[in-house]
Give the backbone structure.
Amino acid sequence: MGGRTDIVLIGGCGHVGLPLGLAFADRGLNVVLYDVDSRGVDLVNRGELPAHEPGALDVLKRVVGKSLTATTDPTVISRATNVCVVVGTPLGEHLSPDPQAVPRSLEEIGDYFRDGQLLILRSTVYPGVTAQVERLFARLGLAVDIAFCPERIAEGRAMTELYELPQIVSARTPSAIERATRLFHTLTPTTVPLTPEEAELAKLFTNVWRYIKFAASNQLYMIANDFGVDYERVRVAIGIDYPRAADIAAAGFAAGPCLLKDTMQLAAFDNNNFSLGHASMMINEGLPQYLISRLEKRYHLEFLTVGILGMAFKAESDDVRSSLSYKLKRILSFKASEVLCTDPYVSCDEDLLPLDEVIERSDLLVIAAPHAPYHDLDTSKPIVDIWNIVGRGVRV
Ligand SMILES: NC(=O)c1ccc[n+]([C@@H]2O[C@H](COP(=O)([O-])OP(=O)(O)OC[C@H]3O[C@@H](n4cnc5c(N)ncnc54)[C@H](O)[C@@H]3O)[C@@H](O)[C@H]2O)c1
């Protein structure tokens, strides 16, 4: 690659950063991914994906070493016209957000910025972080345009949604709005302008809304189940030719790195008055315990080997971050004779066993992530199937 760098992505080898970098590179921009994770950087430069993302590998192979490279060297930031921050913003201890995560990572590399650059914040942030970053750059004496343009893709759909979803673009100055809009128009035709504070809430509301809807479904599932009624039959029935109920979700584990985290960010921001958010957390995070307490009414778990199918936080994913499958495993490890786990996509867990072995050795199977290979399981063993994907799961 020559000297011109259109965009440097800070945190560029992560789940969000890499697809975004690939999309920009595929549209002809010169992209550099800066990341502190040397393993991720090495993999990307070898043309391998650090995490499963459909459609990403083909693009990577096309652009790597040409319009896209990865590095652990922050000096690349100085050469960029645009810089985009997509570092993680996970919860800390006690479910508390870290509002300094993005400002801190920028301050550490503040020396490499220069006047005239456009800085795009893309991580999901605690409200007020954009203003904090603006103050940071004023303190550093840097004339940098600052925009907050949240990422709204879902993992597993990044390489299509980056080109299809409208992009929320927010900034305090017309110049920053205009530059960020032009940049994202290389990916998607529709941009939606907001103020930074509106955009910060817009991103949190997006995830929180989804989390609350899953909690509503999970609570209705528990009510139906406790009444001896099949929730899924009720859900399907009320959706038939009735659009007002068409969006009632199936029951299932609602987890992963974003939904709970962003609900807790909003709760902390709202001085812990966000009772609907906290109630949703209790319902969604309580589902593994609910399942096990129901299982205990039906089985003597202490004599049984239980197999957990699917350790990723959602279907067709290899991402185990905040997966409720592991909560299920922890509780079952205390209650059951033995717990065996399997997942066709997860490679970071050495304790996982092949599916055949788990089926063979288990007395009872629990589908914890509804991966496609589980839709036609070939076994007569009892299957606990809250997702209702096999159509003959045992009711608990
Ligand atoms: N995962 C999703 O589906 C999704 C969707 C929309 C938005 N988001 C948001 O995007 C952000 C990133 O999420 P993610 O899932 O990609 O996280 P991730 O942990 O997969 O990626 C973050 C990357 O940043 C790197 N990093 C951390 N600190 C750094 C630093 N100081 N300098 C350079 N690199 C650094 C890490 O090594 C990692 O590769 C979060 O705020 C998240 O809430 C995630």
Q: What stands out?
A: Residues 196-226 form the longest helix (31 residues). The mean pLDDT is 96.
